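Appendix B. Raw example, untouched.
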Amino acid sequence: MSLSRVTTKEGHGFCPTGEMLGSRPLFAVLPGVPILNAFNILSELLSNLDEPLYATVMGERVMGAKDAWLAKYTLDAARAIVMSLTESLETSHEGEAGAV
């Protein structure tokens, strides 16, 4: 499998809008982003959580509700990227298995 051909898949959203709008996601992963670019963005998102979480665990700061919501939305975005890439890799693998 050539990773250069693997890109993000459409349809993985995060930040539901609530029942009024049918719980549709406000944000979504765009299809067609190369896998390595998506992994770089994923790494940057998760890196942004490292310092505040570490400082909280070490008792150097208190994580308030604002920080917790920021962490939640960051993790939701990261999860959407992982789900999109997982689907793309599975689809790519299935295509190769069928071609053999």
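End of appendix B.
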